[in-house]
Each structure stands twice: as structure tokens, then as C-alpha cells.
Amino acid sequence: MLKYLKQLTATLYDMFISTFFTIAAHLSLINDMSLPGGNFLDVGCGTGAPLKSIIDQIKAKQDKIVGVDLHTEYTRKAKELFAQDERVDIHNMDFYHI
How far is CA 8 from CA 1, 80, 83, in A? Predict the structure, then answer.
């Protein structure tokens, strides 16, 4: 039951929070940022949907893109989203289960 509840929270996050707030914020910020070459770290990457919305702009200058989040189900979805992209690494930082 808990597993399905966690999956539900990740789906709701994508539907509401990511779509209306986080993706809009990422798109707004990326237009105003100057990105030096190197690596890009997305702290609180969630399910990866916001990162996906700006990935093309980031890939133009970045060698490696790393996303981290505390929520296990969010990072599972993000890993699935970027499974075919060798330049993107997603890490779960679930300190509650260490």
C-alpha cells in the first residue's frame, strides 16, 4: 500500500507542481542564465520533468548533468526518463533509509 501511495505522490507531483510551477521556473531561469561549460547540478530534480524541459539548452554547454532528490519514487521516475541519456545521472539522497 505504501509503495502505491509513493507512486501516486510522484504522479500528482508531475501533474500539478512540476507542470505549473517548477517547469515554468526552470524555463524562466534558463533564459536569464549564462551557463559556463562543465557540469550542471539540479538539486531537487523531482521526477525529472523540469530538467527535461530545459535539457536541450543545458546540453549545448554542459559535459555532465546530475540530478539529485530526496524522494525515492521521484528519482525512480527521473531515472526512467533519462535512462537512454548517458550524459544525465540521477541520484537518490534518501537520508531516511541510510
Answer: 11, 16, 21
